[in-house]
Structure to design on (558 residues):
């Protein structure tokens, strides 16, 4: 067997709004084997690479639904993509839905992901409960992982967050804004269900997975938050789900004297049964989740309710999301069974981490980095969405052929894998992501054999932006297309946790540094502009030009 050099077919240029016709790229000619080979262990470490420029799938300006919500007494758009883009195919209507969950979760809909026809603002796929009490575990909710069966039933894992800082209740939180430590934020995971193929999802049980201690006033962000896909593992019949975990020392969230972070794995043979989920504790599938308000755990029993972080080879990547290989790639002897992508630690640049299963270890608990972090910035047009002007968020591999060619001819469970977009191949594979909660994009990608030539990126890296002098106390902002942003910004308040200051024009407009970028907006309410990433993302100095092809200009004047 051999591999042929790659000559990708052209991809349509990025455009705004729903993609109605994509002209899919063709992947490399990797698969030459005939007949299925039983793979005992992977000996090949394939390389993931873009093969065409990014496409805009959803644009807040053109596609956002008109519904609004109230935040700190201010009305703002309700639809702001704030989770991994996910998709499912409804077997009852033969339509695919694409979402990135938010306070108002509306779907882009079409026969396939390649032929999305409209963004449906008339019908929310899931309506968050938004209860204001922490013990309900039904607060701010994100429909994050969906599993659809051929008969139209299905289950979902719902990421839940209680935000004490938004509650207006001082007994829950001293603060009224998000802090650098995420104080007063409490994560958990709930269980959802559908009976109409995913046209509508509803809450079935809360909490499904949570820390074994109640909410603690002013404590830093903690909990078990659902992130990745619900994968069915045919080898043992279990379903697996990755959950982000975080608990603080001596808060009752884990064994005394310990701190926990990373991502852990839960599994179940019957995902609709909330009592059936068990987490990996490092040696066994025995971690159970309890509701601390109804079933409090004594300190010497906390270890029974604390899962272990998966081994990802020393990487600190977050938002891990595994997928299963299907189709012709699996005919190659030594090809891995699964692949997983994640968000590199630090949110520094438009990068994605790629992982492959380790040779040993319980399913989905041990991974190795398959390649250096993949930098996508040179695959995004710097005059529209690239050039570091937007925050890169929530990458997810989605293959458009998952409900079709990749799952054709299989049994009901394999069809469910396909309907749930958990299968990936190499002819219609995309890396989806969110940019600054204002865009959902996708970049056509493909798997290459080690040593195979890789495509050349269409947009070479731009030089780093010029910076203002450090130590400025006053800035002038000009040339912003949002006229109200222009004006004089004066230093306001004390130095914040990352060593920077905030600068204020008025109550609705500030210049501030958050999550490795300088921003113009109103903290916790709205972001109007995000600057190029500064040197090492430390906030040492404010960039002068905030756009590659126009945009705000910020000058130090005092």
């Amino acid at each position: 067997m051999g591999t042929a050099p790659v000559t990708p077919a052209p991809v349509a240029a990025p455009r705004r709004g729903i993609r109605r016709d994509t002209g899919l790229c063709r992947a490399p000619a990797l698969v030459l084997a005939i007949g299925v080979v039983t793979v005992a262990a992977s000996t090949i470490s394939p390389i993931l690479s873009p093969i065409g420029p990014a496409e805009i799938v959803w644009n807040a300006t053109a596609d956002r639904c008109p519904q609004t919500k109230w935040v700190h007494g201010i009305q703002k758009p309700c639809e702001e993509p704030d989770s991994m883009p996910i998709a499912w195919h409804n077997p009852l209507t033969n339509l695919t839905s694409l979402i990135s969950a938010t306070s108002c979760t509306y779907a882009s809909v079409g026969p396939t992901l390649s032929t999305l026809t409209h963004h449906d603002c008339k019908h929310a796929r899931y309506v968050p409960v938004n209860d204001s009490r922490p013990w309900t575990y039904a607060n701010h909710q994100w429909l994050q992982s969906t599993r659809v069966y051929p008969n139209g039933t299905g289950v979902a894992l719902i990421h839940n967050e209680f935000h004490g800082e938004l509650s207006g209740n001082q007994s829950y939180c001293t603060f009224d804004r998000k802090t650098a430590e995420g104080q007063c934020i409490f994560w958990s995971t709930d269980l959802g269900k559908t009976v109409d193929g995913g046209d509508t999802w509803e809450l079935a049980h809360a909490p499904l997975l949570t820390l074994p201690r109640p909410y603690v006033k002013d404590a830093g962000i903690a909990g078990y938050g659902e992130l990745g896909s619900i994968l069915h593992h045919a080898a043992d019949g279990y379903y697996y789900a990755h959950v982000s975990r975080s608990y603080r020392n001596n808060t009752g969230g884990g064994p005394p004297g310990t701190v926990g972070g990373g991502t852990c794995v839960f599994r179940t043979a019957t995902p609709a049964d909330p009592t059936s989920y068990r987490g990996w504790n490092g040696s066994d599938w025995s971690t159970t989740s309890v509701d601390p308000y109804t079933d409090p755990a004594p300190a010497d029993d906390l270890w029974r309710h604390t899962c272990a972080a998966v081994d990802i080879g020393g990487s600190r990547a977050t938002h891990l999301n595994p997928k299963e290989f299907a189709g012709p790639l699996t005919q190659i002897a030594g090809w891995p069974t699964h692949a997983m992508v994640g968000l590199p630690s630090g949110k520094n640049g438009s990068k994605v981490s790629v992982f492959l299963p380790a040779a040993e270890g319980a399913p989905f608990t041990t991974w190795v980095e398959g390649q250096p972090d993949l930098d996508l910035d040179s695959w995004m047009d710097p005059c529209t969405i690239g050039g570091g002007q937007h925050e890169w968020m929530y990458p997810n591999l989605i293959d458009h052929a998952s409900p079709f060619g990749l799952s054709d001819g299989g049994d009901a469970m394999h069809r469910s894998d396909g309907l749930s977009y958990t299968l990936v191949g190499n002819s219609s594979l995309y890396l989806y992501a969110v940019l600054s909660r204002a865009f959902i994009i996708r970049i056509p990608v493909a798997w290459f054999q080690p040593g195979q030539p890789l495509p050349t990126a269409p947009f070479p890296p731009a030089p780093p932006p010029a910076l203002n002098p450090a130590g400025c106390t006053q800035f002038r902002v000009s040339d912003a297309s949002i006229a109200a942003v222009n004006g004089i910004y004066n230093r306001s308040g004390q130095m914040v946790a990352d060593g920077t200051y905030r600068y204020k024009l008025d109550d609705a407009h500030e210049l501030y540094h958050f999550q490795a970028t300088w921003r113009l907006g109103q903290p916790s309410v709205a972001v109007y502009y995000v600057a190029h990433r500064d040197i090492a993302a430390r906030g040492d100095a404010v960039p002068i030009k905030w756009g590659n092809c126009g945009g705000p200009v910020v000058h130090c004047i005092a």
Notes: The chain has two helices and 33 strands. The mean pLDDT is 88. Residues 412-419 form the longest helix (8 residues). Residues 129 and 138 are 6 Å apart (CA to CA).
